[in-house]
Amino acid sequence: MSEFNQPIDSSRFSRESQVATMMRNVLAGPEQYDELEIGLWGCPFDLGLGARNGVRMGPAAIREASRYIRKVNPTTAINPYKLANIADIGDPEMNMMIQSQALEDIERFVAEFTGKGIVPICAGGDHTIPLPILRGMKKGGYIDGGISVLHIDAHADTLDTLGDEKICNATPFRRAVEEGLIDPTKSIQIGLRGTRFAEDDIQGSYDLGYNVITMDEYEEMGRAGVIDRIKRAIGDNPCYITIDVDGLDPICCPGTGAPEPGGIMMRDMQMILRNIRQLDVIGGDVCEVMPHRDPTGMTQLNAANLIFEITCLAAENIARKKGRI
Amino acid sequence: MSEFNQPIDSSRFSRESQVATMMRNVLAGPEQYDELEIGLWGCPFDLGLGARNGVRMGPAAIREASRYIRKVNPTTAINPYKLANIADIGDPEMNMMIQSQALEDIERFVAEFTGKGIVPICAGGDHTIPLPILRGMKKGGYIDGGISVLHIDAHADTLDTLGDEKICNATPFRRAVEEGLIDPTKSIQIGLRGTRFAEDDIQGSYDLGYNVITMDEYEEMGRAGVIDRIKRAIGDNPCYITIDVDGLDPICCPGTGAPEPGGIMMRDMQMILRNIRQLDVIGGDVCEVMPHRDPTGMTQLNAANLIFEITCLAAENIARKKGRI
Amino acid sequence: MSEFNQPIDSSRFSRESQVATMMRNVLAGPEQYDELEIGLWGCPFDLGLGARNGVRMGPAAIREASRYIRKVNPTTAINPYKLANIADIGDPEMNMMIQSQALEDIERFVAEFTGKGIVPICAGGDHTIPLPILRGMKKGGYIDGGISVLHIDAHADTLDTLGDEKICNATPFRRAVEEGLIDPTKSIQIGLRGTRFAEDDIQGSYDLGYNVITMDEYEEMGRAGVIDRIKRAIGDNPCYITIDVDGLDPICCPGTGAPEPGGIMMRDMQMILRNIRQLDVIGGDVCEVMPHRDPTGMTQLNAANLIFEITCLAAENIARKKGRI
Amino acid sequence: MSEFNQPIDSSRFSRESQVATMMRNVLAGPEQYDELEIGLWGCPFDLGLGARNGVRMGPAAIREASRYIRKVNPTTAINPYKLANIADIGDPEMNMMIQSQALEDIERFVAEFTGKGIVPICAGGDHTIPLPILRGMKKGGYIDGGISVLHIDAHADTLDTLGDEKICNATPFRRAVEEGLIDPTKSIQIGLRGTRFAEDDIQGSYDLGYNVITMDEYEEMGRAGVIDRIKRAIGDNPCYITIDVDGLDPICCPGTGAPEPGGIMMRDMQMILRNIRQLDVIGGDVCEVMPHRDPTGMTQLNAANLIFEITCLAAENIARKKGRI
Amino acid sequence: MSEFNQPIDSSRFSRESQVATMMRNVLAGPEQYDELEIGLWGCPFDLGLGARNGVRMGPAAIREASRYIRKVNPTTAINPYKLANIADIGDPEMNMMIQSQALEDIERFVAEFTGKGIVPICAGGDHTIPLPILRGMKKGGYIDGGISVLHIDAHADTLDTLGDEKICNATPFRRAVEEGLIDPTKSIQIGLRGTRFAEDDIQGSYDLGYNVITMDEYEEMGRAGVIDRIKRAIGDNPCYITIDVDGLDPICCPGTGAPEPGGIMMRDMQMILRNIRQLDVIGGDVCEVMPHRDPTGMTQLNAANLIFEITCLAAENIARKKGRI
Amino acid sequence: MSEFNQPIDSSRFSRESQVATMMRNVLAGPEQYDELEIGLWGCPFDLGLGARNGVRMGPAAIREASRYIRKVNPTTAINPYKLANIADIGDPEMNMMIQSQALEDIERFVAEFTGKGIVPICAGGDHTIPLPILRGMKKGGYIDGGISVLHIDAHADTLDTLGDEKICNATPFRRAVEEGLIDPTKSIQIGLRGTRFAEDDIQGSYDLGYNVITMDEYEEMGRAGVIDRIKRAIGDNPCYITIDVDGLDPICCPGTGAPEPGGIMMRDMQMILRNIRQLDVIGGDVCEVMPHRDPTGMTQLNAANLIFEITCLAAENIARKKGRI
What we know:
Six copies of one chain form a homohexamer.
Chain A: E1 38-43, H1 58-65, E2 86-88, H2 99-114, E3 119-124, H3 130-139, E4 148-152, H4 172-178, E5 188-192, H5 203-208, E6 211-214, H6 215-234, E7 238-244, H7 266-274, E8 280-287, H8 298-321
Parallel strand pairs in A: 1-2, 1-3, 3-8, 4-5, 4-7, 5-6, 7-8
């Protein structure tokens, strides 16, 4: 293991000290990509948002909140820093106003480092970004397409357009299927529950072939049932985890653009992620954190904790594949 | 169906656009009452409050938050705009300082539109207002008295006086029984749990004949048990739903004057309302939203969602009665 | 005078009552345009912003804050409601994500009502909007082009592009000159002071021919000198007043995207506007209010007060032209 | 000097320690009135408010903020604790809902301790309270009526009624003249500037005979001119100082119900009070602090500092009268 | 029963009135210790904190929030004021900067009043303070050592040092065992769940002999199982209850320094405390409230409610021991 | 000029992107010290605070706010990046709880990089830190002692002890004189005005020989007079600029521990710094930013702007000394 797996030790040095990198990890540049195995990054993109905005401040807030994450998972005992080389690799150099350019900037950035085999774990940004991320992963040769997504959300995000716009945070999981990036039949959407624009609102997800667990179904199945269903749907297909924080209950994540009451509790979210260690987790993101809507800071804290959970899954997966464990 | 059932389409026009009416509905005046079936209104009254105040800013905050409500209920698939004519009818012209005048102003306003058969659904306001609302409903000939109330609250609100005052937010459900507006034996109070002024604090509710489910009982009965009990208590009597948001857990509604830990979760509240579609719902209110105590905005968002739930119940009830479904 | 000049009387009815229209005025639709003389409207556009966002929540916040504005100007004694027909005319039906469409939507909306001779006074929105507003004014035949702007701002907004984007909140006062909408030699920019991207940052304003008063110059000239300079620069040319609230000191308007310390005090801003009553004021806007950055509400309150000041100027100008005074 | 003049020493004991009394003074009860010379008290009354409410939380917030006041005035070098016996005497036992009873409760409380010759310095409460305070001072024999008031405010508070209510925060300085408590010709109102309900809005003050300095006049006169005018108006008549914090600029006191841009700066307010040491200051209040509107806490901090300034004036006046200095 | 058991009656006098003492009780000094049986006090100590700070503002915030607690427990019907003499006894005179002195100041203060047999119930303060409290209890002869603690927390607080510091909020439950103050085998730690500094992080608790219920175990056991385990672990040993509010879920207590998602719900916490009435409760504290992190005020409200619950337990225990019930 | 003088271009890349370094500069480590000329750093120390705390979150908040600083000074036209090599060098590895160790850690860190001739510009931290900074500068051979300080503050910070503590934020400018680090006769303290612990409170500054401008004197002298006095006091002695943000008016910097009304306005502070370009500025700091007290973010924004002003002065001084200009 190299210097990467050495976040600043919070038992010795003040959590408030040093520039806020993700979970206090080293900030690494392209010249260090060869040694790196997991790249934590930020994507302050919100040009896919038609509603209340502000998620471009999400990555900075999550990095700041992540100062409080320590090293070892209390349930699984995974210490990801003993299993893989991890660093914060910053953000894409991204156009700040023109959506098409920004999407390309993200795609290029992701292609570059995933092309080196580095697992991408991202703090978003609005929920458009899985699209350019998956495109980048394919462009970099990191995936061939047809991967699974484990998608947590209050909304299906499979509309065709919103406000005449084809690329936005209401459409990525349709676009990604159309482009062959995702295999919907091996993917699953969990937590859907918001009031709907129209009677056939989430029908798109079913039509595309996604596995869907609405909140009503979630409640009936129980946490164990949901975990089981996730494993069956995804199997051993490469899996990307994408969490819109509005999938969680607003009492856990009030700081988001379209909160919908009655969602998944943070404890359940943690336990779901701690119980799918068998999956071939090849990346993930946590999106739609809108810090200015949550002066308690809980939303960004929970987002940081979810990034830690995904990091644990990815690190163990790397170690397993590389025969370290 | 007329133009009323056409809230601004949030899938096309920015949620932040236009004046904030309830759930983005048309703002209608008395000249349109003849066509209207459900009147959404605000009652920024807080002259019945002896404690922390600020609920007079409630209706504006709920209207603002309601921009994010869409059209279709995710559990019941009810689209109220296809079932009834709905509009925002504004607020009463109400004295801002003299309680007795303000109560009359509310009563007159309610009598006027309920006299046309319009179902009243109100964003309060302190929890005194069910009294002038019920009075207005009777005055307008909308009810004869003796109706049922489905009352969600952390407190019984059946004291005789508070601080020597007979008309305040601690007494309406005693006054309304005394005036014959409510039949307590067909009404039910749910969620009672606050610390008590005295040993016999909520005894008034039992003495008056209310059905009561304290939080301790709620927990034992479970959600399904509570739903069943509601249906049995109310039966087919005309039912008015009144929700003091402090009935919900403060983690769902911190923005209220007298939050009491350990209450009803928003998910449960939604599911209770979605499972009593048989009731003859003739009106409702959501009270005690104190926006300045909740900078996350969750309280007003939840209140707006509850108004949507009541609207779904009322719209289906209208459609059923008018043979539309 | 018609019913329009009858905002709800705050000395009789609670300021917190009724739907939040601008300064509690009647909400009027196109069918009432013929009688109307001043149209207060909102433009929740922020697709021209490359930085911290959230100004799309500006108009709603300004309307809400404007409940506290009364009828008579304390310095000039102008009561605009006795001088002109005034109403809130809502917002454009505006695409929420595609900039080019939204710009057209604004332009069409403005053309429609200014085509009837109605003076436009707008609560923005990011500071791109003077461009589509001026375009709409020309399209509607309300202006011929070549008008004066009295422009208050910490930044010149005369760059050619920002982040490769030609239409954004850093460029409108270059675009509008290029399109012949503004005569820069009869226009004036006041309050410029932010740190600069480059040495020649605000040079564009000088090159285009604008009159410019930087904050350093402002301080030397004093308020009276500035007022005199404004009058000389603009003379009797039709004048549009555009205020980016970051022109004011951040202690007055912290709720904005790019606050720059050391700006114009609100008292000075008020007194400047109260001392240019001779100008031919034909419209105006107050932009860049970002409510979530100011939990004290002062920014939106000040913006509402500035809209009142512009309304006083416009109403007196109408009355003068129509020979009412 | 007794134990009273011993606030907790902030140079030794944590400012955050102990129950929050005013400026960390001893909490004294009626049994100690004989020894006391200045009584600091709170009046959490807001039943005279027709607009945005919440000032009943004012006294608690001011007491909390006052932990940071030390002992010596930096300009005048007055240490009030060396000049007079000072304590916090709590609040009146006050009805929380019925205005008429609450007014009597305040009057009785004030009569009791001013009857012992104790100078009343109060943290309000809405600006109705000078009326019951002056009534109490007369009832207790502390004044005969016809005193001077030095009144700082953005509004004149001399309307006859507001919303049909004769006793409210818009009328006390008319009522008190009618009742002979105040001699308006020896009193002065400073800082008036809010937009007005009607053209003749503040005319009442002139008609009643008050000396008035509007904000426009204030600016012309300058601070020194204002100080001079105060001294001439009041002379050696007993003087009560009443400060509505909205008299200050909202950038100093955003936390109030009806903030009006362009007011008196806190530095000027301090220096005015530090330059009228000759006046026969017999009491005072600081009203209309609405803490929930100011999360920075500056409003309550400034209110606490103003209470300190009034205390310095009163203490020196006592010492002068009793020949201690 | 004496005058002590008479908190201000919130059904008669405004909750916002009077200086904020704990639950509106009388403020008592040492001269009244002989009559007192329960002393509510504050300990604004945070010199044991290596992370985000601000808990020194905790006691003031809890006292302020406690205005809303009434007299009777809604589940157990305990009215502590009928069972024991209760007062707020203020805070220790405590050095504000030098840890060693402050610890001694706390110890001395506790020794003084517990030496009179008064039950200590404290609003903290960082979670170092159980150490000086237990020391003070022993010094005052109130305990002999070897007592039980019922310890609610997300962290074990049994490290040997943190940042080289032996006395801090990460170590008190090791130090107290070393000093013989606590019998770990009769004590229990509940709610442990935070990410860990190292693999053997909480091993210290097991090694010392504590009973431990991690959050994973808590979930498996259920609330009834946990209650049963508490009773078995503690038995009839004298029991001190210490609650770090981060033991609760951050959705209940966001205002704390090291919130960890997925904790104990407030309802469960209340019901646990209401179901251990048999225990010999001899004191308690509620620590780590950091009010500035929770603008909703829920954290301090919940802390105040927990102090009420502990007070009920202690009062009933006193009454039982003294044969009053 | 090297790569250091290349902060991320905010006219091209979103201000919200990348890890928050000071003014978006490169983050440099010790291996790059040889090329560096100005080191921007953070010092999240607050172990010298006896009052309201939280300034350890200051550096992170200032870095975050500094994203909005551009490259060129609008008054002086200085572009520091064309004059000197500038980078963010992070924070010291600093003990988080033990004051004596933390002071040594700071001293060692400063000695290391100033030993290379790098100008230190620091975002604090409480106002104790000038002491270890000056010690480090001497230890590193960067100064010999006897330097000038330009000290902006509401308090003199020249007490001998506070709460028995000799090293705290009330004493550094006494300690530093005692240690020969500062020549008080060539130093100046500006803005003093807080209420005082005792009559002789700030006498220490005079006794030590400091030049002092109280706020009362400041007002009489005017800005130009103050600038002149600064130049005369300091002359050509090496000058360290230390700004306690409470020296500014609380309306500019509410987010600090001990705000005192009536201070220096941010505009004046900027213009003072822009008019002392002749001084031999060898370093500086901006201290006492307590972000949680200012949800508007203005305090941290102003602190970031002041760091920019000091950077301009230092860069020009370097360029002058090295003959670049």
